[in-house]
Specification:
The complex is a heterodimer of chains A (355) and B (291). Chain A is α+β, with helices and mostly antiparallel strands and 355 residues long. Chain A contains 8 helices and 20 strands. Chain A is globular, with a radius of gyration of 24 Å. In chain B, helix 3 packs across helix 9 and helix 7 crosses helix 9. The chains are: A alpha+beta (355), B mainly alpha (291).
Amino acid sequence: MSFLSIKGLGKRFGDFVAVNNLDLDIERGEFISLLGPSGCGKTTTLQMVAGFVEPTGGTVSVAGKDMTRVPPEKRGMGVVFQSYALFPHMTVEQNIAFGLEMRGVTGHELRTRVGDALSLVRLDGLSHRYPRELSGGQRQRVAIARALAIRPEVLLLDEPMSNLDAKLREEMHIELRAIQRHLNITTVLVTHDQVEAMTMSDRIAVMHGGRIVQLDTPYNAYEHPATNFASTFLGKTNCLVAEAMPSAQTGEGQIKVGDATIRTSPYNLTGKVHAYIRPEKIHVRPADDSGLTGRVRTKLFLGSLWMLEVETELGPFMVNVPNSAPITCGEGDTVTLAWDSRDVKVLPCEESVHA
Amino acid sequence: MPSLGASRTKHAPWLLSAPALAVFVSMLLTPLVLTGLLSFYAFDSQRGLTDTLTLANYLEVFTDGYYLEIFGRTAAMALLVTLVCIVIGVPETVILSRMQGRWRGIFLLVILAPLLISVVVRTLGWSILLGTQGLINNALIAIGVLDEPLRMLFTFSGMVIALVHVMVPFMVLSVWASIQKLDPQVEQAGLSLGASRATTFVRVILPQLLPGILSGSIIIFSLTASAFAKPALIGGRRLKVAATAAYDEFLSTLNWPLGATIAVVLLVANVVVIAGCNRWVERRFRSVFES
């Protein structure tokens, strides 16, 4: 029996189906991300779990208890909002104490628990500041401390990092993940940032058109995307439109792209297919006759890697070369691209969102 | 020619504001100063205005129980109207802000309607409604709530009701501006922390509406304290307030200096009360106003 269980959850706004018959089982202490572009229904799903939006179908239950009709103030879930939603007229301390006061915590215990929450997010000493006197990162920490001070069994994060700058965001990813592990609190994160989802989650639920199109660990979701949408949304990838071909030998597949035949990982499809290969799986060699030959059109230095765009007869390829050894090719050079056939994933061309 | 350019830049603010300043000085400042001066002249019932300068007018206003009662009534009326406007206007605005587009537009128009109607029509309308043979009394008698008509016209309550009607829009508009600045997620945050809707409103939403409530109250208090038409027509001759008393001194008794004195005292009292309240509220709820 999973801890947080969502069954057949749906939300319609008039004719528009925001969330479509969504099932999701989350274990106690698990960190799940709902990842998808805006309008995919991820925020609506979170709002239904929190109780702010009433579902048009389905149930939400926590530890076996049906929460679907329980008002938000009785659910006892911690929520961190995109805007942080701090109370501007209260100090940091009063903000954090608010939820505890609502639970009748007073006096010494109140002060201790506010203090604990502040140390948890490393904000000791700022308790008498007002939110407007804090930086964006500090406000975010207050919002997290406020949500955690009530010791919720479920923590809901609604795009909490989207207002932070990139460097701060990375630090918060690591820190928030550490806090979540430390407290072993069941957490649902809503985000459109795939890096955020991958860094923090135990499992990622990739959402598209009001449904979960893939639910898997970050590694599996990235390495073995189940749908075209998942492969393009999670990380960068090269896509080839191809024709399925009968397998030539076991443990391998092959496809036809134009006149060329390309060996792929095994698949079981016919007709038109899409083949995906990640930029970091492609190796660049000085030109020879052994693979796909192309001309380097652009070469960008991104610090940890070089990003090349190579023009080939099969179309442009994006290639990442790790910055571990000096790079030999330059713009305009002719190079050969090679890869392991297992890194070419084949998916059906047509995919219905409602499949 | 840098010198000319510099002098033009220097004089530009004055030149640009000259038209407004001219209007301000000729239409507001001059009459105000003249009224102020007038209040220091002695008045003789036989000879009218004399050349003697005196403080007798102020002494009369501050010692005569008749004028003290008038100022007391004015203050009570302004305070009561302001309070009733807060009690009605704030919930009204909150409800309005949660309405859907079209209904919101209709109800906003209904709320603002009193401001669109001429003051005379509006006031006489209330006279018709409130009169002994008026619509309200007749209706209440017809459905059996009253046996005999309730006296509403020429009463303090009647005055307050009619003034609240026209003042509420100012509260709604001021609070509306504050509500627009409110983060909609703040209410959800209150709920998620275990506060009921009522508690969330009182502890989270209401404090953030204070700046709007304060500015609405200032507008309403000052307009009510110097209101003339409603007290004159609905309050009647018996229930004088500062504005109607000043009018009577000028036009009936022809004691211009005393009328001027009442006007000056009203103005100063208004400024003192408003500035004082403003400072007190801003200090008391500093956290809300600085953000």
